[in-house]
């Protein structure tokens, strides 16, 4: 029964994650944190990253069919994102669980606030890829290195940071950013997962990962279809609200864990 529930959870997370190009890790990781309060951070991160990799690979197929992937930018992001992802996965095992939860929850709240502020300050319809962005390659490369590290460190995959940054900093259209982000996530999340496997941190989560991954692969196909009919502004604003709520819940849990 537990594994059936995990498959259903994977479908929901995979669908939402693919719809916004985030890979679902931003939702899955806090859920794992709440479900398994005594599990080691590296174990939860390895489960989340593996599911993100499967979800992103499935979603990338759908986005490729719709021609919503910028492969030229994606290759650059992958080249610099993988070293960051490897570094983040190595550092995870050295973080105490309470600190890990606090960092994760705080990051989600900050990203949520940034999305709401940016969405209110600048209409999404005015963001056009044709606008010139000075040093776009440099910015994109440095961004990918940072995103790869932080996302692998916390097991969230990185799309939740990458998509807003691509939209508001590099001026990608939202749906193109979602597709390209998924393409990049396939490789960066896989790199982080392989680090956890090589460190022996993954063996206790294989069954949970398999159930979640099956659901995420199915959900990703629903997500790519929904992306055709979902307004960009709605995607980012709903995402911000969900992130804020989940982030606050994780922060509160972490504070309770360290209080006497």
Describe this structure in words.
By secondary structure, this protein is mainly α. It has one domain. The chain is built from 10 helices and no strands. The protein has helices at 2-20, 25-35, 41-65, 71-92, 97-121, 136-154, 159-168, 174-198, 206-227, 232-258. The longest helix is centred in the C-terminal third of the chain and has 27 residues, at 232-258. Residues 123-132 have low confidence and may be disordered.
Helix content: over 70%
Beginning-to-end CA distance, first to last residue:
36 Å
Provide the domain count. Answer: 1
Number of helical segments?
10
Q: What's the β-strand tally?
A: 0
Radius of gyration: 17 Å
Shape: globular
Task: Compose a concise summary of this entry.
The protein has 260 residues and is mostly helical.
Any key phrases for this structure?
260 residues; mainly alpha; 10 helices; 79% helix; globular
What are the SSEs and their pairings?
Elements: H1 2-20, H2 25-35, H3 41-65, H4 71-92, H5 97-121, H6 136-154, H7 159-168, H8 174-198, H9 206-227, H10 232-258
Helix pairs in contact: 1-3, 1-9, 2-3, 2-10, 3-8, 3-9, 4-6, 4-8, 5-10, 6-7, 7-8
């Amino acid at each position: 029964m537990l594994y059936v529930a995990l498959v259903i959870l994977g479908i929901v997370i995979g669908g939402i994650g693919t719809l916004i190009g985030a890979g679902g890790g931003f939702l899955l990781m806090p859920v794992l944190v709440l479900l398994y309060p005594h599990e080691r951070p590296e174990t939860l991160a390895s489960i989340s990253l593996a599911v993100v990799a499967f979800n992103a690979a499935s979603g990338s197929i759908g986005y490729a069919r719709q021609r919503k992937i910028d492969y030229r930018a994606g290759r650059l992001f992958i080249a610099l994102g993988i070293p960051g992802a490897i570094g983040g996965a190595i550092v995870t095992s050295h973080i105490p669980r309470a600190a890990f939860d606090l960092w994760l929850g705080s990051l989600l709240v900050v990203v949520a606030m940034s999305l709401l502020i940016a969405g209110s300050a600048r209409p999404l319809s005015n963001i056009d890829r044709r606008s010139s962005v000075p040093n776009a390659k440099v910015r994109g490369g440095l961004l990918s290195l940072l995103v790869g590290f932080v996302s692998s460190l916390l097991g969230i995959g990185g799309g939740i940071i990458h998509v807003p940054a691509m939209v508001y900093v590099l001026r990608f259209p939202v749906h193109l950013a979602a597709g390209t982000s998924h393409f990049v996530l396939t490789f960066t999340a896989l790199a982080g997962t392989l680090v956890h496997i090589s460190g022996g941190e993954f063996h206790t989560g294989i069954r949970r990962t398999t159930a979640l991954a099956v659901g995420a692969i199915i959900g990703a196909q629903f997500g790519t279809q929904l992306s055709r009919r979902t307004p960009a502004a709605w995607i980012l604003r709903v995402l911000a609200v969900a992130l804020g709520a989940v982030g606050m819940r994780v922060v509160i849990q972490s504070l309770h864990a360290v209080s006497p």
